[in-house]
Design goal:
With about 290 residues, the protein is mainly α. It is built from 15 helices and no strands.
Length: about 290
Amino acid sequence: MKKLRFGSFAFDAGNYAALALLAVLMIFPFWNVLVSSITAPHLVLEGAIRLWPEQLTFVAFTTIFNTPNFVKVFQNTVFITVIGTFISMLLSVLLAYPLSKKRLAGANAMAFAVFFTMMFSGGIIPSYLLVKSLGMINTLWSLMIPNAINAFNIMILISFFRTLPEELEDSGRIDGCNDFGILFRIMVPISMPIIATLTLFYAVAQWNMFFQAVMYISNPNNYTLQVLLRQLLIVLTSDAVAASLSEDVPRIGVTVKLAMIVVSTVPILLVYPFLQKHFAKGMMLGSVKG
């Protein structure tokens, strides 16, 4: 008995040690970036790895926050992340749920049509012409509507909905629910683990929107955060501009790069705690009674 207890303790201790090491390996790079972004630029140029900031300064963040249109651009990014994610999840659920029902005529054909888009696409030029013909050029809708549905996420949702027992639908119909009532009152609440996961996927994709913003947006007032940071980086690393500015500007370029990573990463990281609880829940816990 003592040997079993010791073996169990050693196994748990090994697991905790391994997980703690993995956590450190994952957290340390970001911590180093954060520390370096608030360290004096001339010390960062030395290339040393630091655990704590030296000669604390927020000049890199001040440079970013004082960039023209920063507040407007940040609002644009939050808007397309929140609204775009909502639109994507709504359309994904409304498409995946009926396609998961084999009794629906043509469900398999439509599911294959969705899968086909994962292998082949229309290309950049046809996509641009389509967005232009819809009058969405230079609007934030061009960053949300054309990419509202991800085929891979649809496949995941279809597979998930097919695992749910049909008795749930029958109980809903007995209680007088129509198809929309069954979907939003029964299926969606017990599907929160997969919905939370796909919501995070969509939110991260919307927050990091860059290529589409460069292609569809030319009005600076409609830029996304990633585009603005890229332009700021180009300005700070331009030899011509650096030569005409003060001596401090080239030196703060390296800390501004690090501050950009922090500014573009931290907001989306704050979304995770609100969704994490759904990852740990059993997706069918308490949904079917014997």
